Amino acid sequence: MRLELATNKEDLALWKELVDRYHYLGYHHPIGASLHYLIVTDTPQRQVLGCLLFSAATWHLKDRDQWIGWTRKDREKRLNFVVNNKRFLVLPWVDVPNLASHALSLALGRLRADWHQVHGYRPVLVETFVDDSQYSGTCYHAANWQRIGKTSGKDWTNQDNPSNLDGTIKSILAYPLQPNFRAVLKNEPSHHKTGRIDES
User: Fold this and answer.
1) Predicted local confidence at residue 166, as pLDDT
2) Can you tell me the distance from the alpha carbon of 177 to that of 173, in angstroms, rounded to the nearest whole number?
């Protein structure tokens, strides 16, 4: 199993069709920077197993912002260094043990490099939301994500769109992409070798 970045018109069209048809939230065009991945296997021939989307972080999340220790000014300046795992789909006919957690681990292992290649900088934290009424989030916990709080159901998706996520209160999970992520997000001195915000 491997991940492919969907960058050409055909792969993006396939990604959108699969998510729109088989993900319970459907497809909505992401706001801001994003990366679309196809989860594929080449055995016995190329087959798509699922889809992943990473895109701009939610503008305001009370529990997340308190967990980071963000002031409003810090968040406004550095929100782009947090990205959101907005969609994760394993196609309903696919039955591969541990596929979901393995796909997440692969994505997290290459996300900073891929984001830098496409968007010119490296994020330091990933967030996602789990609807506890429908899912347990087992694959995220298996991939070492942390449960850090709850959405309010009225959280802002971005500065210009103060609409709620979908009105449902969900668990917020987070995964640091480098050890000094808080120092980076707050622009504080750090003993970690990457120092302050890494834009290279």
Assistant:
1) 57
2) 13
